[in-house]
């Protein structure tokens, strides 16, 4: 027997089994996708560690999957592989079968995965009122979500202590990502004293460089320039690339920049450009293209979204002129916000005289953990950041 295990690397949060892509008795080739795991941020596929037959599923849908846990087993026995697959695979040993009549609350409780149990408790829904669609009638997270949606529309299934409230069929039940975002937001505001500074940046030089590269067939986003400029600015205030520890301010040895990526109604993820300080703007652009594409395809791994030392929120791409993002990661000291790039009238000196000019401008904000850095470091960092952007050399 070959064990299928949960990968050791994941984004610091518990994973659950989202779905099995094969059933017991199926023949699999080495590296075939077997099972999908889901955290609050990413979904990843676990491949088959060897060729053979899927002999056993240990952790079924909605079960918690801690790093290193056994998900299932593959047999490489040729006799087993040649035998016809059972049309009805056995339930995994980790699932307790109900001993008495279906629908009894006690029996239902023994058949609930931890994530389903939490969801039922959160919404105050009696499991005996839900018809499970999983294996052997188990209640899945999708069953709970449907019950929550129905309860929202009809008022059925609300906790006994809940006060009457107006509901709508447009209400959206919380998913794991939204709950985790809420948890991180509340923790960040409670634990980290936030202060925000606002500067303005002229993107004329960057726009000219971007256009020159485009003429040569190299297409870059403005975000690539922003990441590069942020990396170069760390020398002006190294603590911006650090974090608060109980006994010190720890400075990250590499500049690993996370970039907020919106996923529509599903929230956002923050893939990380590792060691951005050692990369050219073209290399950063290529990495961003790859990370953004995989983020929107739901194909990021835990390693793609972990280890960031600084974060950028380019909220201007969705139309916002000015914002002060919250530091979401406790292991970081600052977050950069970049507003909408738009042409504005500014005063510039020309031939010794002041004159009005139309330039592509954007507001940039740096929100800092005031335990780690002070105002003069914040302003020094932003001053250098603006200087890098406005002094970008010609292509």
From TrEMBL:
Its EC number is 2.3.1.-. It comes from Sphingomonas anseongensis. Its cofactor is (R)-lipoate. Transmembrane segments: none annotated. CDD domains: lipoyl_domain. Keywords: Acyltransferase, Lipoyl, Transferase. Forms a 24-polypeptide structural core with octahedral symmetry. Residues 82-107, 152-171 are annotated as: Disordered. It comes from the Bacteria. InterPro entries: 2-oxoA_DH_lipoyl-BS, 2-oxoacid_DH_actylTfrase, 2-oxoacid_DH_E2_comp, Biotin_lipoyl, CAT-like_dom_sf, E3-bd_dom_sf, PSBD, Single_hybrid_motif. It is an enzyme of class 2 (transferase). Residues 111-148 form the Peripheral subunit-binding (PSBD) domain. Residues 1-75 form the Lipoyl-binding domain. Gene3D superfamilies: 2.40.50.100, Chloramphenicol acetyltransferase-like domain, E3-binding domain. Belongs to the 2-oxoacid dehydrogenase family. This is Dihydrolipoamide acetyltransferase component of pyruvate dehydrogenase complex. Residues 82-102 have a biased composition (Low complexity). The lineage of its organism: Bacteria, Pseudomonadati, Pseudomonadota, Alphaproteobacteria, Sphingomonadales.
């Amino acid at each position: 027997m070959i064990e299928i295990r949960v990968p050791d690397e994941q984004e610091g949060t518990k994973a659950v089994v989202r779905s099995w892509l094969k059933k017991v008795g199926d023949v699999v080739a080495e590296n075939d996708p077997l099972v999908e795991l889901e955290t609050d941020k990413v979904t990843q596929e676990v491949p088959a560690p060897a060729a053979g037959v899927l002999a056993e599923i240990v952790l079924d849908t909605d079960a918690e999957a801690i790093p290193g846990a056994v998900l299932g087993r593959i047999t490489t026995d040729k006799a087993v592989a040649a035998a016809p697959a059972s049309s009805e695979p056995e339930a995994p040993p980790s699932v307790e079968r109900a001993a008495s009549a279906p629908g009894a609350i006690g029996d239902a409780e023994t058949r609930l995965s931890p994530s389903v149990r939490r969801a039922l408790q959160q919404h105050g829904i009696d499991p005996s009122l839900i018809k499970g669609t999983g294996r052997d009638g188990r209640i899945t997270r999708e069953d709970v979500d449907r019950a929550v949606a129905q309860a929202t529309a009809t008022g059925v299934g609300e906790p006994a202590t809940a006060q009457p409230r107006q509901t709508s069929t447009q209400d959206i039940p919380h998913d794991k990502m939204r709950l985790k975002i809420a948890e991180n937001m509340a923790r960040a505001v409670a634990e980290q004293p936030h202060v925000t500074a606002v500067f303005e940046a002229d993107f004329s030089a960057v726009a000219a460089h971007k256009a020159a590269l485009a003429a040569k067939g190299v297409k870059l986003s403005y975000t690539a320039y922003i990441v590069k400029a942020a990396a170069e600015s760390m020398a002006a205030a190294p603590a911006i690339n650090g974090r608060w520890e109980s006994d010190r301010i720890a400075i990250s040895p590499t500049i690993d920049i996370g970039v907020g990526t919106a996923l529509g109604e599903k929230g956002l993820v923050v893939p990380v450009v590792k060691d951005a300080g050692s990369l050219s703007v073209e290399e950063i652009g290529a990495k961003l293209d790859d990370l953004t594409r995989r983020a929107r395809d739901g194909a990021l791994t835990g390693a793609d979204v972990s280890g960031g030392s600084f974060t950028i929120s380019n909220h201007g791409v969705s139309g916002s002129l000015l914002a002060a993002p919250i530091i979401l990661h406790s292991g970081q000291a600052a977050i950069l916000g970049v507003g909408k790039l738009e042409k504005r009238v500014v005063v510039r000196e020309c031939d010794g005289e002041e004159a009005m000019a139309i330039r592509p401008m954007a507001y940039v904000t740096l929100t800092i953990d005031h335990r780690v850095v002070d105002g003069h470091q914040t302003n020094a960092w932003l001053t250098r950041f603006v200087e890098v952007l406005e002094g970008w050399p010609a292509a």
